[in-house]
Amino acid sequence: MYWGVDVGSTYTKICGINEKKELVDMSVIPTIVNQDEIVKKYLKDKDIKMLVSTGYGRHMIEETFSCLVISEIKAHAKGAYFFNNDAQMVIDLGGQDSKVILLDKSGGFVDFKMNDKCAAGTGKFLEIAANRMGLNLDEFSKIGFDANKKLSISSMCAVFAESEVVSLIAKRESASNICYAVHESIASRLASMANKFACKSEVILFTGGGALDSFLVSLLSEKLEKTILPSKYPQLTGAIGAALCGYEIYQEV
Amino acid sequence: MSVEEHRKLLSEINVDVDRHAKMMNMGLESYKAQFMSQKNRPEAMKYFDWFMSEIQGQRIAEINELRKQKKPSVGAFCIFVPEEIIVGAGGACFGLCGGSPATIADAETELPRNICPLIKSAHGFKLQRTCAYTQSSDFIYGETTCEAKKKTWEILNKHHPVHVMNIPHMKRDKDLKMWKEEIIEFKEHIEEVTGKKLSLEEMLEGTRIINEKRKALLRLDSLRGLNPEVMPITGKDALFVTQMGFLDDPKRYTQKVNELCDELEKRVEDKISVFEKDTPRLMILGTPIAPPNWKLHTAVESSGGAIINEESCIGHRYYKDNVDIDNIKNEDDLMSELMKRYSEVDCACFTPNTPRIDKILKMYKDRQADGVIYYTLSFCHTYNIESFLVTEALEAAGIPCLVIESDYSPEDAGQIKTRVEAFLESISFKKKANKLKSKS
What's the short name of a Pfam family annotated to this entry (chain A) (predicted)? Predict the structure, then answer.
């Protein structure tokens, strides 16, 4: 089995593929302290031909398992391309990062953009806003479709944006409309990053936890005027990419 | 430990010694961790390691010895300072502390948060009295290269004398004429400090010394960057050597850099490289990298890349041009030549600034680099905005480019590393693809 571990800021994703490149094992667990120990426990007694780590905590896993390491960008490019080899652009919205990756025809990544140190436009911001409204992410995503007013949030900083949300609440704006505003602000950021690349492909793949948010998907496709296709297992894309990398390297050597 | 040895002197120049000692310790620890742990370093780096250990000790004693002899002592944050004149007067010209996050909170009591970290850090050092260089300067050289600096001088001047030189933002004849007048005025200011006239010969001597220093740095630049087969020194070490050029005595420094270059030349002959074969070679473009800001170099060189050049104020921009002194007959000639040399500096404060882009493209080709990182400090509007034009030209030339905006805080180190690693992966991927293409 070939394993990919993606230690993200919020969740750790583990997946295993077999000799036929079939996904046979996958798991999403919250990232906490000593994450390497948890991964170790998970992989105990499992057959490991190759292990590749990626994500924020990749170097911690590297130290513990002395395994190979790849960047999230490469991992997401690989994972997304595996399920859909027409797309030449991948948008990834993770807990603390958002990125846009440009692929060539063979799935190698050509260029990428990534947010600077700032939580605006990341999954973290969605989470903060949903918490403020007393909703979980799933509920928060759904009510956006009922918005009847196009409110906007203008702050460039997640902390200030949160206070904008608070002031919208104080103005008795409906939860749906606030939800719209929050999603709009994130979609705008992602779209402006994506627009920096002239992307020819009609389909853009969407990965990371953000791709589970159906309202965000619809806003983003509206903005970019393209089909936004959530990847098959959005959250696991990075881990799958890492496992595939391990598979390839194993075949090479 | 040097701070203890020099406690008396540091107190005399009104340094907050206890606080200073704490910061120095942190700086030294960080230096040890990031520099001394590198493998296969050139022997000649020992001098620079020593210099680091005495960075605010021995060197401060030397500067204050000069001051006792009424020689001028000038601190600056910009490479537009005509150091030839200061050195000609027998004095010392040095860069002031401004690369640490530790003083920023203090600076923010007087300055806005959204200006560049270099200015805030520098201002904070003055407020805290923790930079022995700032405390040793007769005056601080200020310039008008950006709005934030221009206005900060007015506030800094409340705490320490500042002499502001008006740097034009265009290079038309009338601007250059004004610039020359500014250099003459600077010279007169130095004469006021020393209380005596400066002779042409003295200024020429100062110019020769600084010309030699720049030549040595240019030699180092070639040795580390021009040969793709052998990279004899890490980018981090070379950066540190360059950074120390702003502090050390110029004659001694020139000698030490040349000794290092001799060793590097030998290494190139013997094919001793500190990087593995095919390590991606990157150039860094953009804003100055003041010590102890080693964040970017550490991220790149711990991710499997090599930095072969800094197109920066602490880098190529600082030493690429020399003052032509062959045909100087009088003081006016020298002032003209100094102005000419300084007007070649392609700082982003100028508009238009196309020579910078031309230089970058040429540098990239000459050094057979594999990619560039455009590094800019947060809120450094000139370099930040100019990154658009530079990356546009780079993209047109098919040069891989990554833009990174950061400040001195450590919390984005992980993100920077991710982006750098991905950038290096994409370069390797392209290299591989090109090889396959040429085979088929």
Answer: BcrAD_BadFG
